UniProtKB/TrEMBL annotation:
Sections of the chain in a coiled coil: none
Record Pfam families: PfkB (PF00294)
Keyword check for Transferase: yes
Lineage: Bacteria, Pseudomonadati, Pseudomonadota, Alphaproteobacteria, Sphingomonadales
Protein name stated in the entry: Sugar kinase
Length: 304
């Protein structure tokens, strides 16, 4: 089976507004992708750091129950998981607030076991990470992530990158754009979002965004265009793959579900346009539920 390593942060999630009935779960963009891949029959490894507290233990148990491999998780003796809250408006559009500044995941590279875990991760067939992953670390650590990605590509593996941009994770947009551009030459499959590219580079159309990523070295690019669908560009051609208009309950995790669906379908041998259609299907189901990760039974029958 293809060995997939996803590198990022898993956090405690509070979904709901004050005065309403809230839900406590877990999420984080890379974790959302990891869980979705596991539910689709793959066996992804999640690389991160957790604490040794009871919350960290419960998170690890929940992820293992989903089929996620935990062998690349480091443990910090003093830090705990990050926390974020989701608020949704009447249209299901979400906003986030984070408490993650001293979370265990941010100290991954300071832990003694990180070197051994990185060596194991370098044997992956697929490395998945995001712009949020890069935002957790300083420039030196970002270069180490680049080294990992370069090693995997040199071995013939894939590096899949979602240029997920959260402004509060960076000093400014220029810092984020520079970090993404420095990492771009290692990327084989790019999954940018048009809105993020507009904020970082001033370009918002799928064709131009795809061209920019191809010029940086990506072989395949899928630009997420929101309600318009996705612009897919690969050596065999280009496609605009539209999506069904839905009335969402909570748009949290839509892009992550799309990423997982697209990647799973491609690994199953589906053509890029068909993979994008499947990504839309999985994202469409995800936004009909509260929180970043939908109930397992809601997506059990969805297969690429």
């Amino acid at each position: 089976m293809t060995r997939i390593v996803a590198f990022g942060e898993g956090m405690i999630e509070i979904a709901g507004n004050i005065g309403s009935t809230g839900l406590i779960g877990y999420g984080g963009d890379v974790l959302n992708v990891t869980v979705a891949l596991a539910r689709l029959g793959l066996a992804p490894s999640f690389m991160t750091a957790l604490g040794v507290d009871v919350w960290s233990g419960e998170l690890a148990d929940a992820w293992a129950a989903e089929g996620v491999d935990l062998s690349l998780i480091a443990r910090h003796p003093d830090r705990v998981p990050g926390l974020y809250g989701i608020r949704t408006d009447a249209e299901g559009e979400r906003t986030f607030i984070y408490w993650r500044g001293v979370s265990a995941a941010r100290f991954f590279f300071q832990l003694a076991e990180s070197e051994a875990l990185l060596k194991q991760a370098a044997q992956a067939d697929v490395l998945f990470l995001s712009g949020i992953t890069l935002s957790l670390y300083n420039a030196a650590a970002q270069r180490r992530i680049g080294d990992l990605a370069e090693t995997i590509r040199e071995r013939g593996g894939q590096v899949v990158f979602d240029g997920n941009y959260r402004p509060n994770g960076w000093p400014d947009a220029r810092a984020a754009a520079d970090a993404f551009d420095a990492f771009a030459p290692y990327v084989s499959l790019a999954l940018p979002t048009a809105g993020d590219e507009q904020l970082l580079h001033g370009i918002g159309d799928g064709e131009t965004i795809a061209r920019r990523w191809h010029q940086a070295g990506a072989e395949e690019v899928v630009v997420k265009l929101g309600a318009e669908g996705a612009y897919v560009s690969h050596p065999g051609g280009t496609h605009l793959v539209t999506t069904e208009a839905l009335t969402p309950v909570d748009t949290t995790g839509a892009g992550d579900a799309f990423d997982a669906g697209y990647l799973a379908a491609r690994l199953a041998g589906r053509a890029p346009a068909a993979a994008a259609a499947f990504g839309h299907r999985l994202a469409g189901e995800t936004i009909m539920h509260r929180g970043a990760i939908p109930p397992r039974d809601a997506v059990a029958a969805i297969r690429p």
